[in-house]
């Protein structure tokens, strides 16, 4: 019990650092020569037992994964010197794998065994994404009723700023882990996603010709991270958010059924789900508390709302002034206009600072009618906002 409390303190103190961060003046919007790195494709065969599904990816990405875990260890040691904290993670979190639902528990075991990374640390790696992700997601409808769903994934906030490099240590370590995955059953694509090797939940994905889905963090005090802390301490009702996203991508078959599952399933913590369908007008932002959906925002093209866009603030409230990626992103969308919206112009919107910032790990662009998903590893040249 004491050791679990230690671990909670570790997570809580990271969160606390969020609220005491320094102000950095905004960088003027510009579109410099922006790095566009390709992401490789892998297949995950859902017909295999869960423990075998990730073998190809992890075999390829083992070194990158070990390097990333080492960076997390270094951060933990800076917090509690002497390696004690990681010892606790190895002991305690490895036991918790049994409390995770199938198939996630088995998949995580398989990843630990192929990578050689201790099981508790693979669990930690899977939990961290639930806590330190900030993002921009949008779904736009073009004049032909075609839907484009795109996102920037910004990860690694307050996870060690490298002064020399002006970059986030964990963010840089994650970039080589970005992969595109084609999940297949009976040798047919079920869904595709952009993901980090070693992570079994989903943050970004497409069920081709049916729906597209992204998840953004919701930093909310009502419910906040209490559910995660409770889970660590042993009270386990509610679902991990990115596990729900994965289940929906894998097993839902329509926009409507995806929407119902995302709106009504009890969660461990608040979240935003950005969902696009396959018909004109089908896109929404689902703002979740742990128990229910609040004030959903739908596309409404007739009344001028031809896109929905979400960062990490409730759409009916002002964003935090230190972290306003929403206004610049919307300004850009408005300037682009519905007549000119396309995969290319959406990429440009997501390449505008500070929508693109030092935390931006990847950009993904999806088009449901074509069933396509493409993603790019990002780099934000100086001058660039840390977030
Ligand atoms: C600094 O950044 C470069 C390129 O982004 C990277 O190759 C290098 O490893 C980084 N150095 C450190 C100390 O992280
Ligand atoms: C799976 O489908 C691909 C083409 O989509 C084909 O090349 C491959 O042979 C198939 N594999 C099996 C085991 O049927
Ligand atoms: C999807 O449904 C199948 C069949 O019910 C189940 O075996 C599988 O575990 C589900 N996938 C997820 C990620 O929940
Ligand atoms: C963009 O356009 C919408 C709809 O006309 C408007 O409500 C919103 O205030 C505009 N936002 C910005 C930042 O220009």
From TrEMBL:
Residues making up the signal peptide according to the UniProt record: 1-21
Reactions catalysed: an N-acylsphing-4-enine + H2O = sphing-4-enine + a fatty acid
Biochemical pathway: Sphingolipid metabolism; Lipid metabolism; sphingolipid metabolism
InterPro entries (UniProt xref): Acid_ceramidase-like (IPR016699), Acid_ceramidase_N (IPR029130), CBAH/NAAA_C (IPR029132)
EC number: 3.5.1.23
GO cellular component, one term: extracellular region
Predominant cellular place of this UniProt entry's protein: other
CDD domains the UniProt entry points to: Ntn_AC_NAAA (cd01903)
Single biological process term from Gene Ontology: fatty acid metabolic process
Top EC class for this record: hydrolase
Annotated localization: Lysosome; Secreted
Domain named Acid ceramidase N-terminal: residues: 38-99
Segments passing through the bilayer: none
UniProt domain Choloylglycine hydrolase/NAAA C-terminal: residue ranges: 135-372
Highest rank taxon of the organism: Eukaryota
GO molecular function annotation: fatty acid amide hydrolase activity; N-acylsphingosine amidohydrolase activity
Keywords for this protein: Disulfide bond, Glycoprotein, Hydrolase, Lipid metabolism, Lysosome, Secreted, Signal, Sphingolipid metabolism
Residues at the catalytic site: 135
Family: Belongs to the acid ceramidase family.
Name of protein: Acid ceramidase
Organism this protein belongs to: Cyprinus carpio carpio
């Amino acid at each position: 019990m004491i050791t679990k409390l230690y671990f909670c303190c570790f997570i809580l103190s990271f969160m606390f650092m969020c609220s005491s961060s320094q102000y950095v003046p905004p960088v003027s919007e510009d579109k410099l020569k922006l790095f566009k790195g390709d992401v490789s494709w892998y297949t995950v065969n859902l017909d295999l037992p869960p423990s075998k599904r990730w073998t190809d990816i992890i075999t390829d990405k083992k070194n990158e994964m070990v390097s990333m875990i080492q960076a997390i260890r270094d951060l933990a040691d800076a917090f509690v010197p002497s390696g004690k904290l990681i010892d606790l993670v190895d002991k305690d979190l490895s036991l918790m794998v049994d409390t995770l639902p199938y198939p996630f528990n088995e998949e995580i075991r398989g990843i630990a065994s192929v990578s050689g990374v201790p099981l508790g640390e693979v669990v930690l790696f899977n939990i961290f994404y639930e806590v330190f992700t900030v993002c921009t997601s949008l779904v736009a409808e073009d004049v032909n009723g075609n839907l484009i769903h795109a996102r920037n994934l910004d990860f690694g906030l307050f996870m060690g700023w490298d002064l020399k490099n002006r970059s986030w240590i964990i963010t840089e370590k994650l970039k080589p882990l970005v992969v595109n995955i084609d999940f297949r059953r009976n040798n047919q694509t079920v869904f595709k996603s952009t993901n980090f090797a070693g992570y079994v939940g989903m943050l970004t994905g497409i069920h081709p010709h049916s729906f597209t889905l992204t998840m953004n963090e919701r930093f909310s005090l009502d419910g906040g991270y209490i559910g995660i802390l409770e889970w660590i301490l042993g009270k386990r009702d509610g679902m991990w958010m990115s596990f729900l996203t994965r289940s929906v991508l894998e097993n839902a078959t329509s926009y409507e059924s995806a929407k119902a599952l995302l709106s009504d399933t009890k969660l461990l913590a608040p979240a935003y789900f950005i969902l696009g369908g396959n018909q004109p007008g089908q896109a929404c932002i689902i703002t979740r508390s742990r128990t229910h959906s609040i004030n959903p925002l739908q596309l409404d093209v007739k009344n001028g709302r031809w896109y929905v866009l979400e960062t990490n603030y409730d759409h009916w409230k002002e964003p935090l002034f230190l972290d306003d990626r929403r206004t610049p992103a919307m300004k850009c969308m408005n300037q682009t206009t519905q007549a000119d919206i396309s995969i290319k112009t959406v990429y440009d919107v997501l390449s505008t600072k500070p929508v693109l910032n030092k935390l931006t790990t990847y950009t993904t662009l999806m088009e449901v009618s074509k069933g396509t998903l493409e993603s790019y590893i990002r780099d934000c040249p100086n001058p660039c906002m840390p977030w």
